[in-house]
Amino acid sequence: MKKIIDDERLIYKCCHFYYKDGLGQKEISDRLGISRTTVSRLLQAGKEKGIVKIDVINVYGSMYDDLERKLEDRLHLKEVLIIDENEFETQFEHQERVNEEALKYLSRIFRDKDYIGVSMGRTLFNIANSKELADERDAIFVPVVGGVGYGQSNEGFHANDIAAAFAKKFGGSSIPFYAPAMFNNRDIMKGFLEERSIRKVTDLFAKLHTVVMGIGCTDRDGTLSQSGYLTPEELQEFSKKGVVGDCLLKLVDANGNEEAFSDFNDRVMGLRKEQLVTIPNRVGIAVGRNKGQAVLGVIRSQKVNILITDVSCVQKMIELLDKEAAECQEN
């Protein structure tokens, strides 16, 4: 894996922020989650590599830079990373590309001694268990939803497993969350939250610097349905109410609203929204055209301020955004 100082994508963004957008080194440091020393080194590397001349040269393809910046500005996101696609690559090859780019990005923003929250699901499972290498980070990985799931049908996808896999990948440590991800009764969950062993984990939520989350579709093939958290009857009911996706197991509609699904969401054990929105880096990862509507809904809920995705998903998102804009003009 490339060192941060050799990451041409990062060098370009840093130079663009500094020379074109007029941001100071401290602002760039805060926005990209790197030290001011690293910002200075990246700016110097930009000169040495010929990125900074009379203009800032995009060495990895202006099409994706334009898309990234369009989404960052339009959706008020801290950063967007769009992963390339090749029509000749297999699904497995594309997933490996996603794993590599996601790990490279996470290596940049993870820091030693950070508390890092992780959710559950297939996307994070694939990244954490991939063959790709990651830079070592002595970080503490904390499940932000209950780490115990229903049955064994999705063994390895639960938050405890994901946290342990990320800790192994980055050379850090993890803390298990021995609580169900979903309760049948809110009152029982409230009682569970009073247990000392549970509070040892939930008290760490206030220390999180970064949280990494998958973004799911609410269909029969999604993690919620496949894991047994969402019954076919509930899926049908929530579809009528406009559900488009989930993040941290909590459902949202196309506008990011959750009120219609409060009976379900209030039974999820884990990080609350008011806690989540205070975390500096809220990374959502989703790929595929079918995730476009779900990603928009989750972003509008303010749960995500950094997006890692691919071209297909972005194209669907922009189609939806343009359609909404056209409908607004007509009205």
From TrEMBL:
<keyword id="KW-0238">DNA-binding</keyword>
<dbReference type="InterPro" id="IPR051054">
    <property type="entry name" value="SorC_transcr_regulators"/>
</dbReference>
<dbReference type="InterPro" id="IPR037171">
    <property type="entry name" value="NagB/RpiA_transferase-like"/>
</dbReference>
<dbReference type="GO" id="GO:0030246">
    <property type="term" value="F:carbohydrate binding"/>
</dbReference>
<dbReference type="GO" id="GO:0006355">
    <property type="term" value="P:regulation of DNA-templated transcription"/>
</dbReference>
<keyword id="KW-0805">Transcription regulation</keyword>
<feature type="domain" description="Sugar-binding">
    <location>
        <begin position="66"/>
        <end position="318"/>
    </location>
</feature>
<dbReference type="InterPro" id="IPR007324">
    <property type="entry name" value="Sugar-bd_dom_put"/>
</dbReference>
<dbReference type="GO" id="GO:0003677">
    <property type="term" value="F:DNA binding"/>
</dbReference>
<dbReference type="Pfam" id="PF04198">
    <property type="entry name" value="Sugar-bind"/>
</dbReference>
<protein>
    <submittedName>
        <fullName>DNA-binding transcriptional regulator LsrR (DeoR family)</fullName>
    </submittedName>
</protein>
<keyword id="KW-0804">Transcription</keyword>
<comment type="similarity">
    <text>Belongs to the SorC transcriptional regulatory family.</text>
</comment>
